[in-house]
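Exercise 7. Given the encoded structure of a 151-residue chain, write a plausible sequence.
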């Protein structure tokens, strides 16, 4: 194999690791924006959200609705900025699990139906952020660099 071909293969092997920051930033912006908007909408219609939660049989709906709305809004903003990403990812996963188990349960007849839900996609993205962190283009990474912490 020629040295030119070897260089192309080496470049192709290195490219994914060089673009990891972009992938994590895209996931963060996508899921952060969705939760920020969803939380904002819930905060501005708490009565409707409480009524919806009650219709789903969610206990303590009057307490749960503002909690979920605030978690989605603040959590979405934090994920978007990449601040405390790992800490907020898991509670947001919990919100999506409850959404699937309550509001979307009637839509699930097979595993394929689950994989087709956007909420399941958000779970996958949030778990990825929990496992890999916010990436180098985030406030988490900036704070680590300033403190001299390797991450």
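Solution.
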């Amino acid at each position: 194999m020629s040295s030119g071909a070897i260089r192309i293969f080496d470049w192709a092997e290195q490219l994914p690791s060089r673009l990891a920051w972009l992938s994590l930033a895209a996931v963060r912006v996508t899921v952060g924006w969705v939760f920020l908007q969803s939380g904002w909408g819930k905060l501005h219609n708490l009565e409707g959200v409480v009524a919806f939660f009650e219709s789903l049989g969610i206990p303590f709906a009057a307490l749960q609705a503002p909690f979920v709305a605030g978690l989605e809004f603040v959590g979405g903003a934090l994920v978007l900025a990449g601040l405390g990403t790992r800490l907020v990812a898991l509670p947001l996963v919990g919100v999506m699990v409850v959404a699937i188990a309550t509001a979307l349960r009637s839509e699930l007849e097979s595993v394929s139906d689950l994989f087709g839900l956007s909420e399941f996609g958000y779970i996958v993205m949030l778990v990825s952020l929990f496992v890999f962190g916010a990436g180098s283009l985030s406030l988490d990474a900036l704070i680590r660099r300033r403190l001299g912490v390797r991450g």
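Remark. The two ends are 38 Å apart (CA to CA). Students should compare their own answers with the one above.
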